[in-house]
Amino acid sequence: MFNKWGINQEFLLLAILGIMLILLVFCMVMVIQYNRLNERYREFMRGNSGKSLEERILQRFHEMDGIKDKISDLADRIKALEESRDTSFKKMAIHRYDAFNEMGGKLSYSVCLLNDVNDGFIMTSMHNRDGCYTYVKEIIKGNTFVLLSDEEKAVLEETINNSDTIQLM
């Protein structure tokens, strides 16, 4: 019958043997993969029954509950930090000067600290040969009810216009 179609029986036999060898290699690869998977399954199912698997699953759920509680705690702490950030001092400027015209050197200074809505204070320290005097003046929304010196006005204006860093004048 093969001769009638023009097919040589020897070539057909060789082709079938080649296909069988390829299938044998595929079977060997599949057996190796099955053995690896079976080892992993046995490692996962350590123990005599499904009870050990159930215990492991319950343990993981308990660990996830603990992680959920920690995440909730961290979220509360982040919220508290964000709220305190809104009232913290973010703007600062320092102005050094000679308060008594060549008598004490440039040891006097005014420091202004403000938050985002320009609430804070100005601290002025005036130094001379006899001593040091320190004054603190409250700032509310960029204004004060106390008279400011020229240096204090300058440091206040610089601090209000300051957006992110310490300014030395």
Keywords:
elongated, alpha+beta, 169 residues, 21% strand, 4 helices, 53% helix, single chain, five-stranded mixed beta sheet
Summarize the structure.
The chain has 169 residues and is α+β, with helices and mostly antiparallel strands. The chain contains four helices and five strands; from the N terminus they run αααββββαβ.
Strand-and-helix sequence, N→C?
HHHEEEEHE
Count of individual beta strands: 5
How far is the N terminus from the C terminus? 108 Å
Low-confidence stretches: none
Mean pLDDT, rounded to whole units?
83
Instruction: Classify the helix fraction into a percent range.
Output: 40-55%
The strand line-up of the biggest sheet is 4-3-2-1-5
Output the number of helix runs. Answer: 4
Give the amount of beta strand, in percent. 15-25%
Q: Classify the secondary structure makeup into a structural class.
A: alpha+beta
As for the number of domains, it is 3
Biggest sheet: strands, sense, closure?
5 strands, mixed
Could you describe the 3D structure shown?
This protein folds into three domains: 1-44; 51-87; 91-168, no CATH class. The chain is 53% helix and 21% strand. The chain has four helices and five strands. The chain has helices at 2-5, 9-44, 50-87, 150-161; strands spanning 91-97, 108-114, 120-128, 131-139, 166-168. A five-stranded mixed beta sheet has the order 4-3-2-1-5, with helices on one face. The longest helix has 38 residues, at 50-87. The N and C termini lie far apart (108 Å).
